[in-house]
Structure formats: C-alpha cells, structure tokens
Design brief:
Elements: E1 6-10, H1 22-32, E2 36-44, H2 53-70, E3 76-84, H3 90-99, E4 104-108, H4 126-146, E5 151-152, H5 157-166, H6 176-188, E6 192-196, H7 211-219, E7 225-228, H8 241-250, E8 255-260, E9 263-268
Parallel strand pairs: 1-2, 2-3, 3-4, 4-5, 5-6, 6-7
Antiparallel strand pairs: 8-9
Bound molecules: zinc ion (ZN) (2 copies).
Length: 270
C-alpha cells in the first residue's frame, strides 16, 4: 500500500456519464485519506455545442471551485478538464482553456474525425480494428504535436471496446513504431503520460498503457507520469493506485506528477 493517495483523473456528475457531485466525492475522499484529487470532467471538443458541453464545462468549473473552497485544508482539489479531440478544433480549444483558470488539462482521443466515440461504435472486426488503431494512434500523435494539454490520457482507450464488444485483443507492443513517435513527441513537448486504471475495472482488465509502454516512455526521456483512476463513481477514486504505482516503479520512475496551475510538481512514490 503506497502512502500518497493522489488522483489526477476524476469525473463528477457534470460529465454525461458521471454519477456523483464534486462535494460528495470530496467527502468520500476525506474519509479515505486522499490528499489531492483533480476533477477532470469531459469536454468533447468535436461536439461542443451540439452536445451542450459549453454549459457542462461552466457548471463543472463552478462546482469544482465550490468544493475546492469547502475542503481547503482537508483535501487539495485541483481544477481540471478532460479535453477530448482538442486538436480537431484548435481555435475553440484555446478559447475554452482561456476562459477558465485550470490546474490541469488532460488530453484524450475518444473519437476519430467525423465519427462517434469508440464506446458507442459497433461492428468491430479484425480488419477494421487494425485500421481504427492506426488512425487512433495517428490522432494521438497529432494531439501530442499540438500540445495544448498537460497529460495524455488512457493511451489504449479504444482497445477496451474492441475487446469488450468483439473479443479482439489489441496490444500496443504490435505498434511499437507508432508508439515511439507518440512518446517521443510527448517527451519533446514536456508532456506527462497517464497510467489510467479504468481498464482494471472492465473486461479488458489491464492498465492503460501497460508497463512496457511506461518503461519505453522512461527510456525515451519521459519525466512526468501521472496516476488517474478515471472514476465516474465516488467509490472508485484512487482505485488501482497500487498497481499503477507498482508499474511506474518497475518502469524506472521514482516520482509521480501532480499538476497545479498547469505546472508539474514531482512527488516521490513511497
Ligand atoms: Zn477519457
Ligand atoms: Zn475520463
């Protein structure tokens, strides 16, 4: 059991798929002895107005700020956002990020261009999954190159749905050339890589990314690694943190990273 309970990726009910309020999650966090957590509600940039993210983002920031004040001295609440497909509309993303004073911005890709979220797609086959994977990894690279975020989230996001919906098991190790390009770009732009534990609570049953990719990131000069439960329920905050810290240590990281005012702060894993 590691000592420092810090979770950099938590959703409230201001995410369409979140279940609990920021206040309720903070109460739970205090009881669990969590030192810090970042609320990072969804903002899907490609469907921003169509799916009312403008309102959700505003409400999220307001409620997170309230929780931050209410729990001052008890739980450090960091104000964040999970900006997905941010590089599809760079101008809009910049406007969103300028409007709020975030501590941390998580960058993710949940959907390919002009397509729906991988979690809503069906009809996965061996052939189209390979094509989706190559396109997805290309978009991660494009996002890393764009760089208007702090942490790259759940690097194997679609794989859990390939597995769940079609029993197709994709591993990043089969895409090492593409993976290296992404990791090198993250290093070049001083970005953090997230070890996301949501997969441990799903059928796929794995960290995202797995330890070999975390190790490769370290070998290529990666400095910043973060832990994210990606909790959508209060009871899931810090879930899988021991597995994640264990993988980081085994991959050669002695410190994990917390972001405050979009500045990385290194803390020892112990
Ligand atoms: Zn996500
Ligand atoms: Zn998330």
């Amino acid at each position: 059991m590691y000592q420092k309970l810090v979770d950099m990726h938590v959703h409230t009910d201001n995410s369409p798929d979140g279940h609990h309020s920021a206040m309720f999650i903070c109460e739970k966090a205090e009881l669990m002895g969590v030192r810090a957590l970042a609320f990072t509600d969804h903002c899907e940039v490609d469907v921003y107005l169509k799916e009312n993210y403008d309102r959700m983002v505003r409400q999220s920031f307001f409620e997170i700020s309230k929780a931050q004040s209410a729990f001052r001295g008890k739980v450090l609440v960091l104000r964040g956002i999970e900006l997905a497909q941010g590089h599809y509309d760079k101008h809009l993303s910049q406007n969103i990020l300028s409007a709020y004073d975030y501590d941390v911005v998580i960058g993710s890709v949940h959907a390919l261009r002009h397509m729906t979220d991988f979690c809503h797609l069906d009809g996965y086959t061996e052939e189209n999954v390979r094509e989706y994977t190559l396109k997805y990894l290309r978009e991660l690279y494009n996002m890393a190159k764009w760089g208007n975020f702090d942490i790259m989230a759940h690097m194997t996001y679609p794989f859990r749905y390939f597995y769940q919906k079609a029993g197709i098991d994709i591993r990043l190790s089969d895409y090492s050339e593409q993976v290296d390009e992404i990791l090198e770009m993250l290093v070049k732009n001083d970005k953090a890589l997230e070890v996301n534990t949501a997969g441990l609570r799903m059928e796929v049953g794995r960290l995202s990314p797995e330890i070999d990719t975390v190790r490769r990131f370290k070998q290529l000069g990666g400095k910043y690694i973060t832990f994210g439960s990606d909790a959508h329920f209060a009871e899931d905050i810090t879930a899988g943190i021991d597995e994640a810290y264990g993988a980081m240590l085994e991959a050669g990281f002695k410190e994990f990273t917390v972001f405050q005012k979009r500045t990385p702060i290194l803390m020892p894993i112990e």
